[in-house]
Amino acid sequence: MDKFFKLKENGTTVGTEVLAGVTTFFTMAYILFVNPDILSQAGLPFNGVYIATILAAVIGTLVMGLFANVPYAQAPGMGLNAFFTYTVVMLNGYTQYEALGLVFVCGIINILITVTRVRKHIVTAIPETLQQAIGAGIGLFIAYIGLLNIGFIDFSEGVPAITNFADKNVLLAMIGLVVTLVLMLRKVKGAMLIGILLTTLIGIPMGVVQLDGVSQSASYSQIFADFGSIVGKGIGKEGLGSLFSNHGLLKIFPIVFAFSLTDTFDTIGTFIGTGRRTGIFTAKDEQALMDGKGFSSKMDKAMFADAIATSIGAVLGTSNTTTFVESSAGIEVGGRTGLTSVVTAGLFLLSIIAGPFVGLVPSAATAPALVVVGILMSASFADIEWGNFEEAIPAFFTVLMAVLTYSISNGLAFGFAAYILVKLSVGKAKEVHPIVYVSGALFIINFVIIAMEAATAIN
Are strands 153-154 and 161-162 parallel, antiparallel or unpaired? Predict the structure, then answer.
């Protein structure tokens, strides 16, 4: 084990790695409850998504640990699952299986850009201000979804307003939010998971959680039957087959681009943010990522593991699988090798045991986790130069349109267009990378096509 994971070389021990793996699992296990809740709203079976979430996390995390030998865990990503449900399916009208097909395509693209020099051009092409704005916009988007899911925002009068708090679900969610925030402030490990479980328990005396539902919970056979009903659908005739016959490439492009770009920068940000400080990734690794080909460094291998996980997750029946920033919790307690990831993967696999009881967790218990994730992701606002008007304009429109239109891709479209307009206006057209010009043009063409189709429908 020491030889395979190079424990001594990395200054760690089996005991430290096990502790780190357990810590990482408990800080990110909330996804087991949140992801099925979100994707079930897109029409996928709750229990099936629960198993798909586990297996995607297990496979992705094992590849990360055994192939790249780094202490990072993977699972379906927050923000990406909300984009999948509320934008791709509900807003744009794709079926849940076509959406899985889009995720699979994204994974294949990420694999290709990981093993070629294309990744260097993409990473360097997107300006820092747009990268930060994407993260901030997703954060607000997730938090907004959390509040909407529990009815905290009331639209009954035609305009958004705060609810009257007569709904027990809203009250339970507010209690859960306070509990979770206190746990986070106290720096309790696994605060969000504990918050979900405590909120569920509090919901019992409030009448939100019905204990008689235990006897009606799905059996393991039903759970795996639901899982079997979605495996492979994303790459079958109802997924990829339907996707390319019912939707044009120009319509597909903004969604795949948004999926891929968000996943890529989320992953690279996690690697560099935690790896540079701890020595997991060296400056040489970072340079190899930008200049090398194939798998010339640990970071190359880790990026490949992340890309592979997205494609596998889509086949299993879940949205983009990505590297979780919560992996930093395990790194903080000493995790330095892939053994940490292997331990985390093992605990995810054991979570299958809880399958029949997961359905008891109400949306009121998972909504606080969405709000807290939104708060954490909003840290990106601090890295935007708001005092620089050239930087503020594209960042503002990226965030605003991502939230107000329920669409990360719309946020990117307006952000790219605003960035290009700003640079052209101040005589800095040469600072705009060709990839940004091309992407901006494709976004605009997509809007033109949508407008033309709407005009034709009216006439």
Answer: antiparallel
Residues 31, 15: Cα–Cα separation, whole Å: 26
pTM, full prediction: 0.87
Both tokens of 258, joined, read 């948004």
Whether residue 288 has pLDDT greater than 80:
no
What CA–CA distance (Å, rounded) separates 454 from 431?
35
Q: Which pLDDT band holds residue 198 (cuts at 50, 70, 90)?
A: very high
Q: Is the confidence at residue 384, as pLDDT, over 80?
A: yes
Contact 106/320 with Cβ under 8 angstroms? yes
